[in-house]
Amino acid sequence: MDERVREHAEVLVDWSARIEAGDDVVVSVAEDAHELGVAVAEALGERGANATMMYGSAELSRAYLKGVEAGTDGDVDADDFDSDPAVERAMFEAADAYLRVGGGRNTTAVADVDRPTRQAYAKARQGVREARMDTDWVSTVHPTRSLAQQAGMAYEEYQEFVYDAVLRDWESLADEMAEMKSVLDAGDEVRIVTERDGAPDTDVTMSIAGRTAVNSAASVAYDSHNLPSGEVFTAPYDTEGEVFFDVPMTIDATRVRNVHLAFEGGEVVDFSAESGEEAVADVLDTDDGARRLGELGIGMNRGIDRFTDSILFDEKMGDTVHLAVGRAYDACLPEGESGNDSAVHVDMISDVSERSRMEVDGEVVQRNGTFRWEDGFEAEN
Amino acid sequence: MDERVREHAEVLVDWSARIEAGDDVVVSVAEDAHELGVAVAEALGERGANATMMYGSAELSRAYLKGVEAGTDGDVDADDFDSDPAVERAMFEAADAYLRVGGGRNTTAVADVDRPTRQAYAKARQGVREARMDTDWVSTVHPTRSLAQQAGMAYEEYQEFVYDAVLRDWESLADEMAEMKSVLDAGDEVRIVTERDGAPDTDVTMSIAGRTAVNSAASVAYDSHNLPSGEVFTAPYDTEGEVFFDVPMTIDATRVRNVHLAFEGGEVVDFSAESGEEAVADVLDTDDGARRLGELGIGMNRGIDRFTDSILFDEKMGDTVHLAVGRAYDACLPEGESGNDSAVHVDMISDVSERSRMEVDGEVVQRNGTFRWEDGFEAEN
């Protein structure tokens, strides 16, 4: 076995999920993630944890949902699913941790399942999802040929890309991100400006007063549930202005490029996209909360050096900022207070490596991708 | 998809497990059983059942157990495992049915795990096993290259072999087996005689008075949990005489051939084997119950036309009889009575297609493989 697979498993089990002897751990292994599953199983055995292995197969999910469509003559609504699936709820309620090891055979394996079917299924499984998110859950991926293809990369090249992002000195990145977190925690307002062709294409302000930033250092000990991670995020509100997202992405199987959102009074009042505009419209029309921001995230993982059309990596990349419309994370809110609520949470990303600045309460914190505690930072332009 | 895969899934879901709308079904999918897993998922969706997919990977089990060995410096006992693994117990307690879809990459995948480690793990998981066996469980296999190799067959040839055994008219086989069951239920004593080179090599009698035979027709509706099945079995006692098992088999990764057992007063008092004798000795030395019979089974599935070194198929083959040392099945015993108890249940098989007879209370029921209700049966030799 490639030694990096074993190291990946150790980072996942020890740094990310903090597994200890006696922990009850549920592991979901995707179709082509067998090898990382083997390494994770070995690490769990060595730590003295209990391991329960699920098969996280998108092709099996698709088959199940196509079966439901066939069994209901294609007219599927939430009533066609059990609203309280007993087995998985019982399983996650008994679990201390959940490790999702992604890496299937085809990133578009469920493309031919009707959207209402998928939505009804997701709705019926909300209780299962909540029980799962009450565990110390962590999501990662094994580098597969299917993900390499989605990234437009050769297989070996993609393996290096993934391990550069995952096998980091997380302790030291967490220290650096703590600086960004302290700036956001102390601040009341964030302004982001980017320029293209000499004129601003993004100029947006948002309030973060009273909100707590999460130092997402790829560990449950930091309220962080992705491996890789490497972002600092908070839950903004009262957004005003214009944002341009130049990083290509896929929303619900639709390729989306160059999204523009205009905010007034905290809500999206206008939008456009160079391609995939209907997918953006669908997101914004989901519910009231889908037109408000749920997240401001600042990518700080410089092990990620390119966009691969995967949100797990793209939003953590150094020199990027992302905003999500929809649901806010509780970890960013004062105890007992609920933030923006929505059935969706869709991240969109801007490259800020050039002609950009981020201000907190009027002070520049990052210019052209460089933070003010880094060499080469220019306070004035 | 090969239409036979879909038919296999339908037999499993409808005939074997009797799945209905709303049932909570746990499916375990082995490494190379993905395709049958897809067909099962689709059938479950169509029936309106809930489906939870486990990954039944022997390679992950091996990795986990090797991890436990590494974490305990190799000196593993039952205390090194959680005696009540919460997740899987909760899962099976919530489940109505459990479908085990076998078919891994390597039938000897756990060969280098120490036997005490495997035994300690099995012991710690007894509660999970009991919860699983309290569901409507069914075990089947997807024809894989690894199983074809174990059977000594080409892949396509093995596929035909499996589907010939699985895709039967189960209703009509169940009717035929009901005849055999009624003979055993009414009888007090079974005698089996086989001859080789003009002299008996098997001549054994056993009591079956008060015991109930199971018509194992590959369906939970018949107390039968294997697909394929096709045997009638009961729980004999007070065994006397000699038995010769000429069908090759594998016991705990050891190839065993031509086992001979001598019984007195219900117990094995002498034994030999042409090869693998030490594996037979290990079985018989497990505990007191391992020297007594737990099962007499009569193979009646004529879709199985050869031995493949897999007990799932071999013991169901028409023209065979098998005896198991060790644990008896509760279904064969009077309500509330417990039969022979043991940690093991090891089946051994005799070919009775030639020079053989089975008598129940002195009347010949089967001669040279032909039952008395079949054409060509000879009451007298």
TrEMBL record, chains A, B:
Molecular functions (GO terms): aminopeptidase activity
Entry keywords, A to Z: Aminopeptidase, Hydrolase, Metal-binding, Metalloprotease, Protease
Cofactor: Zn(2+); Co(2+); Mg(2+)
Keyword RNA-binding: no
Domain of life: Archaea
Gene3D superfamilies: Thermophilic metalloprotease (M29) (3.40.1830.10)
Matches recorded under InterPro entries: M29_Exopeptidase, M29_N-terminal, Peptidase_M29
Entry keyword Transit peptide: no
Coiled coil spans: none
Homology family: Belongs to the peptidase M29 family.
Official protein name in the record: Aminopeptidase
